[in-house]
Amino acid sequence: MWGSKSRHERGYGLEWTRLRKQVIERDKGLCQICLAKGIVHPGKDVDHKVSKARAAQLGWSKQQTEALSNLWYICRAEHLKKTEEEQGKKKNPPKPTIGADGWPIS
Fold first, then answer.
1. Which residues have CB under 8 Å from 21's CB, separation 6+?
2. Structural domain tally of the chain?
3. Which pTM does this prediction carry?
4. CB atoms closer than 10 angstroms to residue 65
């Protein structure tokens, strides 16, 4: 995805390290997506709510993109799911089981 670029070349240098620490402390080390579902689960990644690519499309400044309000701490599973959706790789939902009457079985 990022090829051979270093984290600094991708914009994740010392400033990002400081921001990341602030987000983890603010979110108390918990995945904010899971927490919204009533599940207490540790986070793993600091993520942009509005991705850097989408923010660029919207004409956001770096300050807007990197604002604490656009960052949250989330678990790896939720981060991967969000990234897939953003990249148009949303997985197909499971197909329902159809009963003899032709209606889906719950």
1. none
2. 1
3. 0.73
4. 19
Per-residue model confidence (pLDDT) at position 2: 53
Whether 74 is in a domain gets the answer yes
Local structure of residue 11 (DSSP, 8 states)? T
Dump the DSSP string for 49-81.
Answer: SS-HHHHHHTT--HHHHT-GGGEEEE-HHHHHH
> What number is the average pLDDT over the span 29-49?
96
Residue range(s) defining the domain that contains residue 26: 14-80
Contact, 27 vs 72, CB < 8 A? yes
- For residue 21, the number of C-alpha atoms closer than 13 Å in the C-beta half-sphere is 5
Give the largest CA-CA distance in the chain: 62
- pLDDT for residue 5: 76
SS3 for 38?
A: coil
Average of per-residue pLDDT across 8-36: 91
Domain annotation covers residue 30: yes
In a domain, 48, yes or no: yes
What pLDDT score does 92 carry? 65
